[in-house]
Amino acid sequence: MGSGFLSVEFGWTEVFLFVIAWYLLLRYWESTGKLDEWNASRIFFGMILMVRTDKGQKSLEIVSKPRKFWRAYGEVSLWVCWGAMFIVTVMIILAVIAAILMGNQAEARPVSELVAIPGLSPIIPLGYGIFAFVVCLVIHEFGHGIQARAHGMRVRNFGLLMMGPIPLGAFAEPEYSEISTSPRRERQRMFAAGPATNIFAALILMVILGHVGGQFVAADPGVHSSQIVLDSAADDAGLEAWDVIISINGTVIVDGGDFTNAMADISAGQIVPMEVIRHGNGTNEVLMVNMTDKYDYMIDLGYDSETLDSMGVEKGDAFLGVNSPSGGTAGVDRLARWNDPNFGGSAFGYAISVPVSAGTILFTPFEYQGVAIHPAQEEMLDSGDGWLASILGLSGLLILMNLLFWLIWVNLLLGFTLLFPMIPFDGGHLFKDIVHGTMSGIRNLGKKTGLYNIHPLWVEHVTRKASSLSSLLLLLVMLILIGGPYLALL
User: Fold this and answer.
1) Cβ of 341: how many Cβ atoms within 10 Å?
2) pLDDT digit string (tens) for 138-161?
3) 265: helix, strand or coil
4) What is the pLDDT of residues 197-243, one digit of tens each?
């Protein structure tokens, strides 16, 4: 339904032909004066169209009027970005240490997955991807622009970088002479405002996503599993992944609690009827299941008797063989249940759930190959009786759910990726200013104490070297982490 919105798959032949056709079209527009007429130009070997516009200037002036508020916002953004840069740096270091100690265990992914271009990458659908990238890039650059105006810097143009209909980036074109001569703290706020605005937008959208997720209900009662244990009772009886279990031994199964209670009343060795709704055709079928022993199964997995005693697992407990049985709304629950108003929970649990949910959202497209909710779980959903569900219906809710998901995903992707401490990313500029500020502090300390004297040019030299070295080092690390699995295949 919603997840397939404008999803298109391209082969490398189609991509090559598209790039050649786009290049020739740009050359034609350039020769006929169209690019000059549109205030546009070709960059990056003439393959990318840079489109400039002065539209948005009036809106920028109006929005950036409360200067004190936006300067305070810039200071908060700066602290958020420092924290995010620390997290990004720690994750990179841990990944490098893990690769050194255990070897690169990452799976060699298809090359097309490494290209974060909607429609070309199998993990980013064309329709949702283009819309999300355009919106998130505008948010990012508007964040820079507001912060520039709040500190008195002029913004000449906004614009997009295009490859055909696909947005590759956006930019706010400030007066670079004013940026270079502005106080360091103001410059840092401007660089931090873009990524931080993306992160803030993602958090706000995650709250909205939770409320939309609460509008769904299960189309049918019962539980399902994405994995069936091989040679288990369920496997031998013919249960398959995504089949919905609606009763066991006469006990109606509505949710996970019913499943647990039903299994508690059954012993190993019993043969009981289990009614299921088959995935794919929706037919009801009764399977006869010969329950195995959960205690023996877990002993075979390597658990000891003391551990099983502490877990309450006893000899003779029935074992069906389904991993993590879940209700019909599991597809949206994994993304939004933590923030469903009907879910409840403590403030501490809510705070912990935010980064967990963000991580879940970031990894979901890789796990499900470009969809927010597994198609089998999407089929298990229905619209509830909430006001939004009554307006949009099931199809509208699914489209809105997927749209919010991709907006969150792209905002998080941009927010954290652009904080990598390498030029030309915002994180690279922040890192450069941090080094310059540190070296200037060391120089000033030497002047005050009279212990040493550092020339200003030495500060500039060290800053440039540190910035270049960090960019080069991070580039090499990323190439090793990404390219390592491919080298292992040689």
Assistant:
1) 9
2) 888 888 888 888 888 887 777 777
3) coil
4) 999 999 999 989 988 988 898 888 899 988 899 989 999 999 999 99
In terms of domains, do 110 and 211 share one? Answer: yes
Tell me how far apart the alpha carbons of residues 432 and 135 are, in angstroms, rounded to a whole number.
Answer: 28
Query: Environment class of residue 175 by beta-carbon count within 10 Å: exposed (0-12), middle (13-18) or buried (19+)?
Result: middle
- Angstrom distances, CA of residue 363 to CA of 277, 335, 412, 413: 29, 11, 11, 11
Among residues 380, 391, 61, which one has the least CA distance to residue 245?
380
- Bridge partner list, 326: 224
Distance CA 304, CA 457 (A): 66
Say if 102 falls within a structural domain.
yes
Q: For the chain, what's the residue count?
A: 490
The reply to whether 53 and 175 lie within a common domain is: yes
pLDDT tens column, 359-412? 888 888 888 878 889 888 999 999 988 889 899 999 999 999 999 999 999 999
CB 330 within 8 A of CB 340: no
Q: How many domains does the chain have?
A: 3
The first and second tokens of residue 148, run together, are 């520039």
Do 40 and 157 lie in one domain? The reply is yes
- In a domain, residue 8? The reply is yes
Q: Considering only CA atoms, which of 416, 328, 346 is closest in space to residue 91?
A: 416
The token pair at 330 is: 């599991």
Burial of 371 per CB tally in 10 Å (0-12, 13-18, 19+)? buried
Contacts of 253 (CB under 8 A, 6+ apart): 221, 222, 223, 245, 246, 247, 259, 262
Q: What is the CATH number of the domain that holds 304?
A: 2.30.42.10
Q: Which domain holds residue 254?
A: 233-319
Cα 161 from Cα 165, distance rounded (Å): 10
CB count, 10 Å around CB of 72? 13
**Exposed (0-12), middle (13-18) or buried (19+): which is 201, by Cβ within 10 Å?**
buried
